Amino acid sequence: MRLTKRTNISMRVLMYCAVHEDRLVTKSEIAECCNTSENHLAQVINRLAQLGFLHTQRGRNGGMTLGRPKDQIKVGDVFRAIESTVPITECFADDDNTCPLTQACLLRPAIADATEAFYARMDQVTLDRLVCGNTALMEIMAPKVSCGTFATV
Description:
Layout: H1 5-19, H2 27-34, H3 38-50, E1 54-57, E2 63-66, H4 75-83, H5 107-122, H6 127-131, H7 135-140
Antiparallel strand pairs: 1-2
Helix pairs in contact: 1-3, 1-4, 2-3, 4-5
């Protein structure tokens, strides 16, 4: 099983917001920290906000925060929501399924069972379990302070 880049970025955004839950965070700081483009992030942030995982605030002093407490955000829920439009394999696609074996194939239910087991396991992981006490992650996601350059006379 392979998760899409969009799901990966979604989790980076949520983890960043969880680490900085005491303030609004900006798209640009997430892009810099998480090594992704602001354009791609905008799409992901919009979707996460539509799903209620994020709360966004527009304007000059805008930004985003988690849409609900981090202990109530299950990774499985995020994965399901973001991956819902991507079929696990061709035979799960409604429109693009060209597999001639679909009616007789026993692999499809096995894949469906395995996928559900994956999501069930991910439902046991909450956002707070990913960030709380994870000092290495907090160091990576600490805001970068620019000291600037000083001219000597």
